[in-house]
Write a structure and sequence with these properties.
By secondary structure, the protein is α+β, with helices and mostly antiparallel strands. The protein has 2 helices and 4 strands. The protein has one domain. 26% of the residues lie in helices and 41% in strands. It has a 4-stranded antiparallel β-sheet.
Length: 144
C-alpha cells in the first residue's frame, strides 16, 4: 500500500463558551467510507479512496464522556488515495464490510491523518483560544 494523495473537503472550528480551562480533549479518527477509484497513471494497481473524519472535542473535565456537551471542537473531513495491489484491495473490501480498515494499514493511515490534520489544527486552536493537545507549555516556577 502506498499513500498517493491526501485531500481535505471540510474544516470546522467552534468554541461554545467564552473561556475553556481544564478541559479534556478527545482526539478521534473515524473512517467513514471506502471507494474504488481510477488513475490513468496507475494501470498495474488499484486505487482506493478512504474517507475520514478527524476531530478534537474539548469536553468539561470529570463528566462521563457520553453525557458531556462539547465546549469546543475542531474537525476535518477528507480522503486519502491509496495505491494497492489486487490482494490488498480485497483485504480492504473485506475489512470494510465491518466498517474497518485492515489492521496492517492502520498505522500509516493514522500517522498521515494526525500529521496533516494536527499541523493544521494548531493555528485554529490559537485563533479560537482553545487549548492544544500537542503543545504543552510547562508552568513557570519562581525561586524564593
Amino acid at each position: 500500500m502506498k499513500i498517493i494523495g491526501f485531500n481535505l473537503t471540510k474544516i470546522h472550528g467552534e468554541k461554545a463558551v467564552p473561556t475553556i480551562t481544564g478541559a479534556d480533549i478527545d482526539n478521534n479518527v473515524q473512517f467513514t467510507d471506502l471507494e474504488e477509484d481510477t488513475l490513468d497513471l496507475l494501470k498495474d494497481s488499484k486505487v482506493l479512496k478512504t474517507f475520514f473524519k478527524y476531530s478534537l472535542l474539548y469536553l468539561k473535565k470529570g463528566e462521563k464522556k457520553e453525557n458531556r456537551e462539547p465546549l469546543g471542537e475542531i474537525s476535518f473531513e477528507g480522503h486519502i488515495l491509496l495505491s494497492v495491489s489486487k490482494d490488498e484491495a480485497k483485504e480492504f473490501q473485506k475489512s470494510w464490510k465491518k466498517k474497518q480498515v485492515p489492521e496492517s494499514s492502520m498505522v500509516p493511515l493514522y500517522n498521515t491523518i494526525f500529521r496533516r490534520c494536527g499541523s493544521k489544527s494548531i493555528p485554529l486552536q490559537e485563533d479560537l483560544s482553545l487549548p492544544s493537545p500537542f503543545l504543552k507549555v510547562p508552568q513557570a516556577t519562581t525561586k524564593k
